[in-house]
């Protein structure tokens, strides 16, 4: 094949976004409790105590929830989170901020050093992209821990 012909053999990349909920109907998130409730209502009750999952909540300029995106599913004690997937979803949905969320199948609501490190890494990347990470919610059947409430990340309270 000649060099000229290979220039035409590239993949086309399309970005699409379909809004299924009117902006005025999106639930607003003004506290960690509201974030936890949204995550919890959208978490599978059959797996919350089985395996660790990581999801992100995408917010618009008014802190209204655009949607929740599953990022990874792991094992009993951890899951791998790829920052590229987190911010690809946020950029595609034109999110203005995001809230991280993951479960601890053990029910332990303490942030591990790995949880803190991941949050700091994602917050730093979000700062560069002007998509701030407003909170990281660790949830279980027993309740939740909010990084914002603990002062680990900037709070989103009005």
CATH class bucket: Alpha Beta
Number of helices: 4
Radius of gyration from CA coordinates: 17 Å
What is the SS-derived class? Answer: alpha+beta
| Quaternary organisation of the protein chains | single chain
Helix/strand order: HHEEHEHEE
* Total number of beta strands: 5
The whole-number mean of residue pLDDT values reads: 90
Calculate the terminal CA-CA distance, rounded to whole Å: 61 Å
Q: Report the major sheet.
A: 5 strands, mixed
Give the fraction of residues assigned to helices. 25-40%
- Please state roughly what percent of the residues sit in beta strands, choosing from under 5%, 5-15%, 15-25%, 25-35%, 35-45% or over 45%: 15-25%
Report the CATH architecture.
3-Layer(aba) Sandwich
CATH topology: Cytidine Deaminase, domain 2
Unreliable runs: none
CATH superfamily: Cytidine Deaminase, domain 2
Q: What overall geometry do the principal axes of the alpha carbons give?
A: globular
Give the strand order, joined by hyphens, for the main sheet.
2-1-3-4-5
What count of structural domains?
A: 1
């Amino acid at each position: 094949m000649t060099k000229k012909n290979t220039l035409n053999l590239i993949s086309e990349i399309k970005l699409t976004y379909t809004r299924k909920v009117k902006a005025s109907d999106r639930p607003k998130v003004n506290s960690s409790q509201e974030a936890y409730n949204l995550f919890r209502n959208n978490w599978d009750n059959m797996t919350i105590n089985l395996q660790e999952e990581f999801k992100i909540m995408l917010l618009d300029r008014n802190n209204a929830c655009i949607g929740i995106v599953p990022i990874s599913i792991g094992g009993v004690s951890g899951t791998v989170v790829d920052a590229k997937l987190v911010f690809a979803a946020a950029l595609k949905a034109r999110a203005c901020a995001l809230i991280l969320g993951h479960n601890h199948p053990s029910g332990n609501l303490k942030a591990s050093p790995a949880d803190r490190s991941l949050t700091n890494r994602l917050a730093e990347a979000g700062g560069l992209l002007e998509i701030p990470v407003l909170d990281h919610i660790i949830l279980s059947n027993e309740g939740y821990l909010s990084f914002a409430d603990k002062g680990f990340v900037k709070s989103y309270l009005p």
